[in-house]
Amino acid sequence: MRSPSPRPSRPPQSPQAARNAGRPRRVLVLNQSALPRSQGGGTRHVELFGRLRRWTHRIVAGNRNYTTRERFSSRSPAFVTVPVPNYESNGSGRVLNWLAYAVGAVAAGVRWGRYDVVYASSPPLLTPLAGWLLARLRRVPLVVEIRDLWPRSMVELGYLADGSRTHRALVALERFVYRSADAIVAVADGWQDHFAAFGVPPEKVVLVSNGAEPADFVPTVPRDKARAELGADGFVAVYAGAHGPANGLDLILDVAGVLPGCTFVLVGDGLNKARLVTRAAEEAIANVRFLPAVPKDQLANVFVAADVGLHTLAQAELFKEALSPNKLYDYLAAGLPVVTNVGGDLERRLVEAGCAVRGSAAPGESSSAALVAALRELGERGAAERARMGARGRDYVERNASRTAMAARLEALLDEVTSR
């Protein structure tokens, strides 16, 4: 993967460059699961595109929060929603949800009028397919963003049979999307071999990782008040994110039963939340607090009560190869040391940076034992050392994954694809 650099200025020559002359450039952003900062969840695109200097944008999203599945609306002309139906499981209802968004996104794109680039984010793969159609209609470049390697991740997590008819159809669609894009944005470093297997040249792929901005995570309430509102004292571990099958949250409940002196705060919603709440009640796991999803601009007031940020995922080889989780960067930006159970290169880099403790299992070690050991180690380090780890985490995000730095990289890419 490469970091794009702006090309030397020159008189516009291509038809696209000629259309750009004398007017602000516009980018249409398609992401079904995008959310405004008033919602809890994926605000990546609001935070990135809102920092562009020379471009105006419009984000088209589904009108249901990906994790809570509740409807929401937006009054901003830069963020519009299209209606999508609810679904309760990974079945036909979810496919209908994807189809409804793709159709609505095409209609919204046609209504917006003239724009210079279509930027379509996957999953699901129907979103870049809708982006391809709009790019063809408007005769503009298509940039495809890949946030998850569908359908490979579905196979590794057991949701889809490898080589099945559905799998083969999705792979064919994936190949079409990659080859149709003028550029591909990847959120994680380490997917080069996957793209190469589809014949994608490395210069076509640009890394614009997930991240966070430390300035967005300044609490407005004191720590003691935040802890009192949670009913938590002592050592507090927080998880903030989706409560779905891929998130491995049963592991946190396993660990909570072993560490009664630690309070675990689980913030968010998802397909597995009701089952997790029921399990905690049936097993009398009293040191777990379940909170609803919190808008991104209020997360700092939850994090200030915690001593560590937890990141868990179901075990899959794909996650070890490449990972760029927003929630992990949110913790670091808020000054929390972190623990993740995934392992791989990202965990190694964070441990080496002095802002994380290894939470992944060594060969022959259970996942719960590894996570228990990591939390005990952080507890023994004391508040002063955890604060130093938190400061190193903020510095790591500033240098490697700030929204400002990633927005500059994104803007350079948009400039480049419209100058061809």
From TrEMBL:
Record's keyword annotation contains Lyase: no
Residues of the Glycosyltransferase subfamily 4-like N-terminal domain: 40-211
InterPro entries xrefs: Glyco_trans_1, Glyco_trans_4-like_N, Glycosyltransferase_grp1
All copies of domain Glycosyl transferase family, residue ranges: 228-394
Region (Disordered): 1-24
Keyword annotations from UniProtKB, A to Z: Glycosyltransferase, Transferase
Keyword Glycosyltransferase: yes
UniProt biased composition (Pro residues): 1-14
Protein name (Swiss-Prot/TrEMBL): Glycosyltransferase involved in cell wall biosynthesis
Organism: Actinopolymorpha cephalotaxi
